[in-house]
């Protein structure tokens, strides 16, 4: 069972850690039901848990040893006390064993550096934080 992160910092850490796990069920609880995930490099967006589950499954099937580490993080103030803007710079590694929608499998190991911007939403009664929007 996934515990709801109690701070924006904890949410970013839990999200990155869950990306490094093969099961989408560990990653999905960090998103609001209507969350939007946009991958600007590959030019697509996913909305809602069903679509996010497909995205995680495609990625992890193609790159089964994918691992993400946060290298740097920035927390910006949100528009009110119930939102937060948060950015991370990450380092990811893996082996591209299967085709991705925009890239054929190479069979080679890779190292990737990137940045992700989050819009985080505070749950009612201060019971933690979830992701409303992710821009990678």
TrEMBL record:
SUPFAM superfamilies: NTF2-like
Source organism: Zasmidium cellare ATCC 36951
Record's protein name: SnoaL-like domain-containing protein
């Amino acid at each position: 069972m996934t515990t709801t992160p109690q701070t924006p910092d904890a949410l970013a850490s839990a999200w990155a850690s869950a990306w490094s796990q093969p099961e989408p069920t560990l990653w999905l609880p960090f998103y609001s039901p209507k969350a939007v995930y946009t991958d600007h490099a590959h030019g697509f967006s996913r909305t809602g848990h069903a679509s996010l589950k497909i995205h995680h499954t495609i990625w992890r099937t193609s790159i089964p040893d994918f691992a993400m580490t946060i290298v740097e993080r920035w927390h910006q103030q949100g528009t009110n006390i119930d939102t937060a803007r948060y950015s991370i710079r990450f380092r990811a590694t893996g082996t591209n064993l299967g085709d991705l929608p925009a890239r054929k499998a190479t069979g080679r190991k890779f190292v990737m550096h990137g940045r992700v911007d989050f819009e985080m939403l505070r749950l009612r009664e201060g019971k933690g934080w979830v992701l409303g929007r992710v821009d990678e």
